[in-house]
Structures are given as C-alpha cells and as structure tokens.
Write a structure and sequence with these properties.
Low-confidence stretches: none
Largest sheet: none
Oligomer: single chain
Shape: flat
Distance between the termini: 76 Å
Number of helices: 3
Order of helices and strands: HHH
Number of strands: 0
Length: about 90
C-alpha cells in the first residue's frame, strides 16, 4: 500500500511539472505585458506617450538580454570552403 501511495505522489508531481512546462505562451506573454505596463506606470510614464513606449521597449530589451544569458546559444556546424589556386 505504501509503495502505491508513493507512486501516486510521484505521478502527480511529474504531471504537475509537465503541465507547467506546457503553460500557454499567450497567457505568459499577457502576464509579462501587464507587469511591464504597471512597472512603467509606477515609474511615472503615461500610456500612449513616447517615454512610455521607450520604457516598455527597454523592459523588453532587458528581458531578452536576461533570457539569452540564462540559456546560451550553442551552435554546431561544418564549414566548407573552396580554395582557388591550388
């Protein structure tokens, strides 16, 4: 009985992690959009103005920089060249 309970708990934990990994990207984008909006308003920028737009752009740039530093871009490839005159 105890092993069945442990198995159920393990299954539930895995299912929860998988469900979180498959979270709706549109919902996450909307959440980040609302956070950025509120941050810029809290900083004193008024929506619809150029400074507000610059604030939103800067927050996107910061997020992109943080995301790129957290997951390095590893590229592998083969270079092929042609040498003339041999």
């Amino acid at each position: 009985m105890e092993s069945r309970r442990a198995l159920r708990i393990g299954f539930l934990a895995c299912f929860t992690l998988l469900a979180a990994a498959c979270a709706d990207p549109a919902a996450e984008k909307a959440r980040l959009d609302a956070v950025d909006n509120q941050n810029c308003i809290d900083l004193g920028f008024k929506p619809g103005t150029e400074p507000y737009g610059n604030c939103r752009l800067k927050l996107k740039e910061i997020r992109a920089k943080n995301e790129s530093s957290q997951s390095p871009n590893l590229n592998f490839g083969v270079g092929v060249g042609v040498v003339h005159g041999l």
